[in-house]
Amino acid sequence: MDGKTIQILVAMIIYMAVVIVIGVVFAKKANKSSEDYFLGGRSLGPWVTAMSAEASDMSGWLLMGLPGVAYWCGLADAFWTAFGLAIGTYLNWLIVAKRLRRYSVRANNSITLPDFFSNRFREKKKVIMSIAAVFILIFFTVYAASCFVTCGKLFSTLFGMKYETMMIIGAVFVLLYTLLGGFLAESASDFMQGIVMIVALAVIVVISTGNAGGIGAVLDNAKSIPGFFEFFGLGNPTVDANGVQLVEAGAPVFGAASDYGFLTVCSMMAWGLGYFGMPQVLLRFMAIRKEGELKFSRRIAMIWVVISLAVAVFIGIAGRALFPTAHLTKAAAENIFITLATSSLPALLAGFVMAGILAATISSSDSYLLIAASAFAKNIFQGVAKKKATDKQVMLVTRITLLVIALIAIVIALDENSVIFNVVSFAWAGFGATFGPLMLFSLFWKRTNRAGAIAGMISGGGMVFLWKLVISKLGGAFAIYELLPAFIFSSICIVVVSLLTAPPSKEIEEDFEAVKAEQAE
Length: 521
What we know:
By secondary structure, the protein is an all-alpha fold.
């Protein structure tokens, strides 16, 4: 490695050391009990709640996936996705957060999402809990794989080493960290990582725009590409049989702009629906120390989200002006943030900016691994298989499960050509459709019953697979993002099945009315 690469590595090692110290500091408290390990004893302050919720949510997708989309095909896809996410973030904090915090305590002090759904309907046979846990295991394993892909692309691009080796090293680091500190360490480090991420974005967008000749030059370049800088059009890179964009006279080749109609806009904005079912965000609502602090947390979260999303999209646009032929495949386009950082900044500072990507990846993957492991250990092992399991046994099973999930995610992430945006979009749709409608109906419709809850989860999660793997292949209107039809189908199933089956018990209705009454105070 040359001197610049060594400086970048040193900066990243310093950052990683700080993250490990946080894990060590919180390890003692985290391991007191499973509640402390999984939910931090409901002790998060408003700043940590907000920043950790958003940092764990956005992941490396914010610094690599979203700029990559904007770099590859222009403004529309990236903008409407970001716009939908911003609206979804606000509505989730506004209408779900406070009631879920209160209801999760009322529902037998639930500490995981499957716990909450099962206790909400006072299950004796833990069917809801088991189904929810299985879906969490499936989709979070895919999600963790996307984070490992980010690690692999980051390290292999920076250090010129084999992707698979770098991906595995990153995965091992994340796994060891998650094993060590649990939810509190994860949330505390996410607070720091959220700050690192937004600073990294701000530094890169300012310097890159300046290097490109200013905002006017960036926009002029974008407007010169058909459909690239339009809200209702899309840049259409001309590619060869291998998916590599053609270059003529030193410039990338684009075809005529693609149509971008109302249905496509709705499809991309549907990303916002996913928030209602995101376990890593919903758990923060459950973990805040006082529900009265959620309003302040919402303001912090929204400022962070709006700035971060807007800057990430613009970075992709600026990257196309500065390095028009640097990344000629859709997968390679996701490295534009790395290219901008390493070419524009002194090596040591570039290393700390690269730590922003590492921050995003760690903040998400530790959440995904921890929640998936808790779904199995707490909800399936203790909730169904061995109801008298001790806390010590639950913690042991959690750590074993973490290892197994990480290994499966590593196998999924072995494909160097994986597109982070696509991997994340599938897992996001899975959670949004499986849990989003059920969360809303559980909190706000008293008539929702256990049968409706089961039907909603199975239909939503199943439709994501069916639409993605089968129906979308029909093209045209059927090519929309699978979250939208799956969310609607799940909602319909919840309503229809709930109305066709026996109403909830008196005790369940009393719980609902008690939470509703307290909410109104």
